[in-house]
Amino acid sequence: MPLWIAVLVLAALVVATAGGGWALRRRESRPRQGASASSEGWDPGVHGERATLVQFSTELCARCPQVRRMLHALADETDGVALAEVDLTHRRELAARLHILQTPTVFVLDASGAVRSRFAGVPRRNAVAAELDRVIGEPTHV
């Protein structure tokens, strides 16, 4: 194979890999509304008057502490919003039942405890704030 063809193939692979990574990263920050998981059969332990943020994590999750701090700040600045964390390290059956494939995963629950949306991976702060506003029904984050 001529050298220029090998270089062209290698460049195409690099571009395809970078594009795929970019697309996956963009997808991570988007909420999935109408989430398939039901809140029946598990209790996050904490319930907010208006909404609840639930972070699912594991002991070895490197990105979970940063997400926990961000969610804690959002919950503190929004009246009636609580934050719960569920450690899935020894609860594989719960992860399977809720279709959680990566940590962190964040659920946004409404006042009744129903799952309204979910984020897989590290969500952007403004995306979680927008979902909270949508679930609460009034703009609290500008």
Q: How is this structure best described in words?
A:
- The chain is α+β, with helices and mostly antiparallel strands.
- The chain has four helices and five strands, in the order αββαβαββα.
- The protein has a five-stranded mixed β-sheet with strand order 1-5-4-2-3, covered by helices on one side.
- The radius of gyration is 18 Å and the shape is elongated.
- The mean pLDDT is 85.
List the helices and strands and how they pair.
Blueprint: H1 3-28, E1 32-33, E2 51-57, H2 64-77, E3 81-87, H3 92-97, E4 105-110, E5 115-120, H4 125-136
Distance between the termini: 57 Å
Shape: elongated
Number of domains: 2
CATH class of the largest domain: Alpha Beta
Q: Tell me the radius of gyration.
A: 18 Å
Task: Describe, in short, the structure shown.
The chain is α+β, with helices and mostly antiparallel strands. The protein is built from 4 helices and 5 strands; from the N terminus they run H-E-E-H-E-H-E-E-H.
